[in-house]
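Incident review: delayed structure delivery

Summary: a single-chain prediction request sat in the queue longer than the usual turnaround. Root cause was a stuck worker, restarted by the on-call engineer. No data loss occurred. The affected request and its eventual output are reproduced below so the record is complete for anyone auditing the incident later.

Affected input:
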Amino acid sequence: MTQRRAHLINRTLVSTCALVLVLLNPLRGWTQEGPAQEIFLPKGEKGPVVVVISGQSGPPNYRGYATQVAGLGYYTVLIDGKDILTRAQDGSQNLRAVINKAQASSNGSPGKVMVIGFSQGGGGVLAHAVRMPELITAAVAYYPAVSWSRNIPELASRIKMPLLVLAAGQDRYNNCCLIETIR
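Output delivered after worker restart:
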């Protein structure tokens, strides 16, 4: 093996390992740029931005979903729902930081983003994302946690964009995201 070829192989291995570390083992918690984020590159060079907000179980359970969204051509950012729907931090500020960073990426298309939240992340969509029509074009909330809201009609009045809420009438898991609460 030539020295040049060995150098290229070594450089490729280092680059691959770095990419794997970024995608599979992101830093957890707050960084200077906002909450920890996992990036899933779009099919192609650039794509519209989609922010996926995990449920309480955290980002690892939503990586497959984020991968599928990226496979459709979207620059996908996966974040922890605990960083958005929480009393300890400013979820609205955290979501704005994630969106601003994604919009500045060379892989994300400029313009408004789409936000998809699951359970706790869906609650974050209802608490914060629906009030950001200047940044977000539309949102989806899967089984959104709404037990934090004392006034659902007031919550509904804050919605300033197209919103799709998906919940099951028979789901009773931990009484978290009951359809009766949303109705």
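Verification: The chain has a mean pLDDT of 79.
Action items: add queue-age alerting; document worker restart procedure.
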